[in-house]
Every structure is written in C-alpha cells, then in structure tokens.
Amino acid sequence: MKISEALKQGVDILSKGKSEINMPLLDAQIILCHVTDRDKAYLIAHSDEILTELGRDEFFDYINKRASGCPIAYLTGKKEFMGLEFFVDENVLIPRDDTEILVNCVLDFAKQYKNPKILNIGVGSGCIEVAIAHYNTDAEITGIEKYDRAICIAQKNIDRYSLGERIRLIKSDMFDGLDNNEHFDIICSNPPYITKDEMESLSIDVLEFEPYTALYGGEDGLDFYKIIASQAKEYLNSNGLIAVEIGYAQKESVCDIFIKKGYENITCHKDLSGYDRVVTAQYIK
Fold this sequence. Notes:
CATH superfamily of the largest domain: Vaccinia Virus protein VP39
CATH architecture of the largest domain: 3-Layer(aba) Sandwich
Order of helices and strands: HHHHHEEHEHEHEEHHHEHEE
Structural class: alpha/beta
Shape: elongated
Number of domains: 2
Largest sheet: 7 strands, mixed
CATH class of the largest domain: Alpha Beta
Helix content: 40-55%
C-alpha cells in the first residue's frame, strides 16, 4: 500500500469514527509520521512509496484507536508545550496551550527575584515545572502531586531536560505533605475546574480518555480554588503571588473566593482567544 493510499483510507476511517475529528487528514499525517519516523514533508514528497506490512498494520491500528476517540498525544506519547516536547500517557492530563498563559504569568512575576521559590500544585506531566525551570534558570520549583503514576511521568520529563537539581516532586494531597516551615514566592496551579454539568458535555476524547481526577472540580468546579485560597497563604511569602488557571466563565467566582480570604491585587488575565484564563492575587502579610 502506498503512503497516499494509506492516508486516504485513514482519513475515511477517521471521518466516520466515534470521535468528532475536525482535521482528519492532519491526524492521519501525524500518525503516519509517528509510525514511519518521517516528517510530513517526506510523506508528501514520497506519496508513492510503499509502506511495509508492519508499518501499514501499525498505522491502521493507531487510526482505529484515534477514530474511537483516543487523543493523538496518547497515541504518539508526546505533546509540545511552551516550545518543549513532553512525554504523556493516559495517567496525566494533556498539556494545553491555555496553560501557557499561567506559566507566562509566573515567569513575569518571578523576574523580580534572584532565586524565586515556586510551588506548583498538581504536577501531572510536569510541563509547568519544566517550562518554568527551563525559561528561568535561577528558579527552584517544588511540585506536589497525589498520584504515583503522574509523578513517574513528570520525573521522566524532568530528567529529559536535566532539571532534577532545581525541581523536586513531593507526593502530597494538596498541601498535606508540605513542611509547615516552607514558604514560596509564587504558588501556582492548574487545578481541576470542570463543573458537574460541563463534565457531561465534554468530548469523547477528553471524557473517556483523560484522567477524571485532573478534570472534575466539584459540582460548581470551585472545590480546589477554595482549598488553595484557604491554605496557600500559610506557605506564601509576604507580597508573594498566587496564580491559578480558571474556566472561561469562572472569573467572578474565583476572584470572590480570593477576596473573601483576604487576598489583594487580584487580576484576571485573558488567553489568546480573549477568554478569562488565569487569576493572580497577592497576600500581603
């Protein structure tokens, strides 16, 4: 089977699949690039090349999985974030472009410190920790994560970029595993914030494949913001920053949570689509 023929059949399968795939040709190309270890330009230039039987079978195995809803990132085992490539699997949330807004807020605030100490709540793939450490070479980052499998994935990504000396991971359910004497200049988080109603309307790709615990934020989506606002100030240096990613309709609710807990200088930052995406606040001791 030629490359062009495989792509054509792949597109046809994806177009009729269980998952709503907006760009089936692009997905088919990404999968075939992964299987053949070639780039897209090669596939176009060598469209008449015959695939090996093994390559063909592997391609259609991936295509069928994608048609059933499995995200491309889980099939290829990688996702780009902040210009860096991360290993991901079904144990961690797939990094999103929206979360780059959170990282950039942290990086901007961290510039005022010689050696900023930063805490990230909910490590997942480790993309936040690694991106901060990569772009601020003086930062010391602590990541807390409840699940062992996520910690293993994050450590793999930390090791890939040789950042183990400045990033440490702690198994902890929110703040429970932290030493009471620890303090940070910045505390950030992309917590689970999907509401009960929103969970029911998520795409198959997300609902059936990504970790439920990384998505669901309680009936109103605000459970984790309440914990962070209540406990973070005990670990935050004076004038330090809290930065949290939010859902597009949660600005008022999240800001109100931080106001009631005594935080100041509360600001909302929009994403590239113009939606409210990150809330920052300071606690003045």
